[in-house]
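Entry for the shared binder. Reason: the reviewer on the internal report wants the predicted structure included alongside the sequence.
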Amino acid sequence: MGLDNGSVETGEVSKPPLLRDLIKEAIFSPTLSISFEPRSIDLGPFGEEAEGIMGRTLSDPQGLERARIVYVTRGGKVLIQQKDIVGQVTEEGQYCNLGPLLFRTINVSPNFSHLPRNLRQDKYVGLIIHSHGFYELPFSPQDLAVLFSSEMNILASPALFVVTPERKHLLLRTAKTPQWDILVLDKKIKSWASMVGERIMAHVDSSMPFSQQVGINAQVQHSFIRQVSEKYHLLRYSCRFADNIALRESA
């Protein structure tokens, strides 16, 4: 897949950088982050992949989540996984377990911990694209694990993409985003999930219509994502489902 210059000037108008260029830049950075904070991002082929994922989710009677992984090879080639990972239903809800696939797919070099990042693996996780079933829900606490993983963790990713029936959502690391080891990360994710769950239950009544319960869930999760993004320096972007240029969110 060829990569274009993500910030080409055309007359007086600067084109939004391509997401695939940004993740290629970020993947070998010690901070797993891009070097600037664009006001908008062209989702390019990843936006089209997201639309396909959402279409297959909506065609599924169970509305199971689906995901695809975008890899960046050691040589800088960008590869999109060609088959969906289909989610599972648990007591806690739906989720796509990406770990087993990544550990099978990514080949790690001997003396991994003593090598520079660009020599540790044959490929790296550049982006995870996934749907959230039938529902208009943003990122969950569990989704965020890859964004706060240490750059020594092969599951770490500089970017995360969620598609819903109405919108496309993107999160990016920055140089100030912390990198936690697996024990700290696990504790954080469990704490966040518990906090979000408690906030939802404080406002949801079983007598409410299901659509209203989903709406409250979405409001709580949006608030949580805003708070975490501000505290830990994540960049938030989104656009309508039919669009492919994601705009920077602030408030």
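Summary line for the report: The two ends are 35 Å apart (CA to CA).
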